Amino acid sequence: MSERLAPTISPESEPFWAATRERRLVLQWCTTCDEPVQFPRSFCPRCQHSSLEWRDASGSATVHAVTVNHRPEAMGEEQPYVVALVDLDEGARFMTNIVGCAPEDVRIGMEVRITWEALEDGRNLPLFTPVSGPVAHPKEA
Amino acid sequence: MTETLRGAAAIVGVADAASPTGELDRFGRDLETQMVFEALEDAGLSLADVDGLCHSQSAMGFAEYLGIHPCFTDSTNTGGSSFEVHAEHAAAAITAGLADVVVSVYAATPRSDRKRRRPMNRFGPNGPSPGAEWEWPYRLRMPIGPYALAASRHMHEFGTTSEQLAEIAVSTRKWAALNPCARFRNPITVEDVLSSPLQCSPLHLLDCCLVTDGAGAFVMTSAARAKTLRKPPAYVLGAATCHDHMMISQMPDLTTTPGAVSGPAAFRTAGVKPDDVDVLMGYDSFTITALLHLEDLGFCAKGEGGAFVENGRTAPGGQLPMNTNGGGLSYTHPGMYGMFLIVEAVRQLRGECGDRQVHGADVAVAHGSGMVLSCMSTIVLGTETTL
Predict the structure, then answer these.
(1) What are the beta bridge partners of residue B72?
(2) Which residues of A touch B158 (CB under 8 A)?
(3) In this structure, are B84 and B115 located in the same domain?
(4) Is B362 found in the same domain as B222?
(5) Residue A139: what pLDDT?
(6) Domain of B303?
(7) Does some domain include residue B136?
(8) So what's the pLDDT on residue B148?
(9) B177 and B325 fall within a common domain
(10) Is residue B1 part of a domain?
């Protein structure tokens, strides 16, 4: 794998990235709506209040959409890999890579859990892996 | 011309922030947001009333931050006069009924940025990019990746198949065969599309638009003057725009684009229904893009696009001539293809299209798609008989 592009840090999301140093997943919540705000902002785009706080998240999620890059060299990679949108149980949607299984085994609706990849600056990047572990490769008829 | 700018629009709320120290505590999007709320409060309006947004760097990015889905958008940057230009454009838009409440905003904190050692010029010309924080590290291939995610979701929710997406590429190639300027004119089959290399699943190479050189232009004038000129006018019957995200991870629904807002709005203004459309020029960056347009513009119900395009429905001789120049899939695609949609729509209405002419074409739609299914803009054009 080539070096990842390190994620930038916006003023609003500093607590998110600080927590990743301890491999903790936190979410910004609107205490008025009692819903997470992703991506983090200075106000809640649903209700426009600024009653925001950070809460620990479960790290459990479901695959919402998925693609396998079959031209990895176009992105400086050697092997096909998975990019997915996952919905955390708390309701926030994240883009991520699904790792720890064959790329073709990832399915929409699959339950995944967080795993971390170390970044050079001490932060960790949230990735996801199937809850059930590596699945037997389904033989296509 | 019955409407003029004179007296048709007014500024109803204002806000500013400055300090004797020359410094402000807040900065960036937070400060911009504060200004928007204060100006709206001054007007007695709320964010929910805002349907037009002007920002000299990034109306789309700031709208995403605000969580609003504007139908009028303007990121014009003319330097210090940007906001006068925004006022001019906003007045024109309001006069024309394109928007009701337009906000323009500005914030910069160079003094405290320097003092607090915030990186100067920390944003590119398009403003802060949440994508660099939340998406780019995951190596989603651009521009295909977001469309592949949308296609995966459409297949999951509605049972749409790769064969159905391929039908769009096949039909579009048939149009290209009739266009001597098209990049690719040889016939292809569904099997050809499915056996072309997978790029980002579920999209194959032949689901993707070309990369070509290309250029175009159009000229617009008043209806009165248009009648005095050389060519039959293509009248603007309706026009509407909407954007609802910048990052694909923020798209409210991966299977419904903001064309579901812009399309019906433009059709309403034009007084036409999908059945009245003789030629649809629907931006085909990928086969899934064109399929989503068919649903969102109301040519078929949501989820039924796959069945709709079967049996050459959009091919020459089909019920709905779509992308008659051969589209971004087979004619040309230099990167921002929307210009070619308008050019072909006008030529069809003039009857200038030779072998690919749609006979009796009176209503043509140019439906542009920007970024990653982010910003849709629908232009309904008609011949004189439609007036």
Answers:
(1) B52
(2) none
(3) yes
(4) yes
(5) 46
(6) 144-386
(7) no
(8) 98
(9) yes
(10) no
The domain that holds B157 is classified in CATH as 3.40.47.10
Q: Which of B33, B140, B153 sits opposite A43 (nearest CB)?
A: B33
A99-128: string of b/e by CB count within 10 Å (b at 16+)?
bebebebbebebebebbbeebeeebbbbbb
Span A61-109, pLDDT tens digits: 999 999 999 999 989 999 999 999 999 999 999 999 999 999 999 999 9
Mean pLDDT of chain B: 94
Q: Distance of alpha carbon B128 from its chain centroid, rounded? A: 21
d(CA A64, CA B36): 33
pTM: 0.92
One domain for residues B81 and B123: yes
Same structural domain, B202 and B120: no
Residues from chain A that touch B150, judged by Cβ atoms under 8 A, are 65
Q: What is the pLDDT of residue B379?
A: 95
Domain boundaries, chain A: 11-130
Which residue in B has a C-alpha nearest to residue A12's C-alpha?
B30
* CB-based contacts of B172, cutoff 8 Å, min separation 6: B284, B290, B314, B315, B322, B323, B326, B327, B329, B330
Instruction: Tell me, yes or no, if A4 comes closer than 8 A to chain B by beta carbon.
Output: yes
- Considering CB atoms only, which of A6, A42, A75 is closest to B30? A42
Pick the residue of A17, A67, A75, A107 with the most B CBs within 10 A to test the interface with B by mutation: A67
ipTM entry: 0.92
- Find, among A41, A71, A68, A70, the residue nearest to A54 by Cα: A41
Size of interface A-B (CB pairs under 8 A): 121
Q: Calculate how close chain B gets to A77, using CA atoms only, in Å.
A: 9
Identify all chain A residues contacting B149, using CB atoms and an 8 Å cutoff: 65-67, 83-85
Q: Are residues B180 and B77 in the same domain?
A: no
**Both B314 and B363 in a single domain?**
yes
- What pLDDT, on the 0 to 100 scale, is given for residue B129? 87
Report in angstroms the alpha-carbon separations of B125 from B73, B137, B375: 17, 21, 19
pLDDT in tens, B311-362: 999 999 999 999 999 999 999 999 999 999 999 999 999 999 999 999 999 9
The tens digit of pLDDT for each residue in B57-70 reads 899 999 999 999 99
Q: Rounded to 5, what percent of chain B is helix, strand, coil?
A: 40, 15, 45
One-letter-per-residue 3-state SS of B328-362: HHHHCCCCCCHHHHHHHHHHHHHCCCHHHCCCCCC
Chain B residues touching residue A25 (CB < 8 angstroms):
none
pLDDT of amino acid B125: 64
